[in-house]
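stage 2 :: seqdesign
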C-alpha cells in the first residue's frame, strides 16, 4: 500500500450528476487504499450526501455559490494542509487552482474535465458567465499540476477549444465497476414493471435536461409501441420534467412511460431492463452506459461527443445511431430487442474497474 496521504476532493455539491458520483467513488477508493480523505463541498447538499462513507470527512464551505467558496477554501488549505486537491467541474476547477495559489501551500492541484466543452450547451441565463469562463478555465488548466479528462474525446475537444499545448491533458477513465455494483444490480428494483415483468422494458437515466434529449427517446419509443407492447422508465430529475410529461401525455403514453425521479439503486433497474438507451446530444464519458453494460444489459446509444464510441468500441458492444434521429434510434432499439445474447460485459468494462482507475489518480495525486 502507498504511504498514507491526506487528499481533498473539491466539488460544488453532491447533486445527483455523473461527475459527483465519480468523485464520490474516487473518495471511497482512496479511503479503502488507506488514505485520509476530505470531501470539500461549496455547499453540503444533494442526494448523494446519504451515500458518503463514515470514513470520508465532509467539509462544508456553506457557500451559496461555488465562487463564494474561494476564501473558505483558502483557509481550509492553510489549516488542514492536504498533500493534494482534486476538483471537478469548471467553476470548482478555477476556484481550486486560485485557492491553492493564494494559500501558498505545497498542495498538488489536479483538475478534472467531465464533459465535452464544445457540445454542451450553455444555460441561457448564464450567457455572461459563459463568455468569461473559458479564459479562466484555460488559465486553471495551465496553472494546475495535472489536468485529467475522462475520455479521449473530452481531452481532444478541450485541447482544441482552449488551444492547450499537446500533452497537457491526461486521460483517465471513470471508476465505475466493482463488486458492489454487480451485487446491487441483482437486488429487486422495487418497480412493478421490472419486478413482475409482463412486457419488454426500456430504461433511460440522467438529468432531465435538454442535453440528454429524452424527447428523442420518447419519440423512438412511441414508434416501438406502434408495433408491440413495451414500457419505458426514465430515471432522474431536472428542469425538463414538465415538458417531458406534456410530451408523454400528448402521445397518449401515460400508461407506458414512467418518470420515477432519482432512485438510490439504478443498477437494479438496469439489470432487469431489457434494454438501456442513451439518447444524449453530448456527454463526457457517460457513466450510465458503462453501468448498464456492467449490470448485464443490452445497450443502444447515440454517437454523441464524447464517450459512447469509446465505450462501445465503435459499435462492438452496442449500436451507435446519429444524434437526434428518432427513427434510427427506433430501428436500433427494435433490432437489439430481437437479437439473442448479451455483450461480453467483462471485456467491455475492464478499463473502468474502480481499483485500477483509482491507482492512476493516486499516482498523480
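stage 2 :: out
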Amino acid at each position: 500500500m502507498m504511504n498514507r496521504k491526506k487528499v481533498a476532493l473539491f466539488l460544488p455539491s453532491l447533486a445527483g450528476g455523473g461527475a459527483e458520483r465519480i468523485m464520490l467513488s474516487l473518495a471511497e477508493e482512496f479511503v479503502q487504499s488507506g488514505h485520509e480523505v476530505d470531501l470539500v463541498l461549496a455547499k453540503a447538499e444533494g442526494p448523494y450526501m446519504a451515500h458518503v462513507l463514515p470514513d470520508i470527512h465532509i467539509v462544508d464551505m456553506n457557500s451559496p455559490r461555488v465562487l463564494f467558496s474561494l476564501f473558505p477554501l483558502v483557509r481550509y488549505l492553510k489549516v488542514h494542509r492536504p498533500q493534494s486537491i482534486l476538483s471537478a467541474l469548471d467553476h470548482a476547477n478555477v476556484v481550486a487552482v486560485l485557492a491553492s495559489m493564494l494559500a501558498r501551500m505545497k498542495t498538488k492541484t489536479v483538475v478534472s474535465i467531465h464533459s465535452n466543452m464544445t457540445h454542451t450547451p450553455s444555460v441561457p441565463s448564464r450567457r455572461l458567465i459563459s463568455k468569461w469562463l473559458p479564459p479562466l478555465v484555460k488559465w486553471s488548466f495551465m496553472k494546475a499540476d495535472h489536468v485529467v479528462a475522462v475520455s479521449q474525446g473530452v481531452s481532444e475537444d478541450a485541447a482544441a477549444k482552449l488551444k492547450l499545448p499537446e500533452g497537457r491533458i491526461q486521460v483517465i477513465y471513470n471508476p465505475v465497476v466493482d463488486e458492489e455494483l454487480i451485487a446491487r444490480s441483482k437486488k429487486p428494483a422495487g418497480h412493478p414493471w421490472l419486478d413482475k415483468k409482463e412486457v419488454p422494458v426500456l430504461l433511460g437515466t440522467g438529468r432531465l435536461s435538454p442535453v440528454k434529449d429524452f424527447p428523442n427517446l420518447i419519440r423512438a419509443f412511441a414508434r416501438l409501441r406502434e408495433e408491440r407492447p413495451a414500457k419505458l422508465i426514465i430515471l432522474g430529475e431536472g428542469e425538463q420534467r414538465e415538458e417531458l410529461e406534456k410530451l408523454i401525455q400528448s402521445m397518449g403514453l401515460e400508461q407506458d412511460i414512467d418518470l420515477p425521479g432519482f432512485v438510490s439503486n439504478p443498477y437494479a433497474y438496469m439489470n432487469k431492463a431489457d434494454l438501456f438507451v442513451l439518447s444524449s446530444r453530448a456527454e463526457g464519458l457517460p457513466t450510465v452506459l458503462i453501468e448498464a453494460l456492467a449490470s448485464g444489459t443490452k445497450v443502444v446509444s447515440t454517437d454523441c461527443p464524447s464517450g459512447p464510441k469509446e465505450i462501445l468500441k465503435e459499435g462492438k458492444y452496442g449500436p451507435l445511431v446519429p444524434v437526434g434521429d428518432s427513427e434510427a434510434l427506433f430501428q436500433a432499439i427494435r433490432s437489439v430487442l430481437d437479437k439473442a445474447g448479451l455483450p461480453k460485459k467483462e471485456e467491455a468494462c475492464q478499463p473502468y474497474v474502480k481499483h485500477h482507475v483509482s491507482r492512476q489518480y493516486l499516482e498523480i495525486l
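stage 3 :: structure notes
- Residues 317 and 343 are 5 Å apart (CA to CA).
- The chain has 15 helices and 13 strands.
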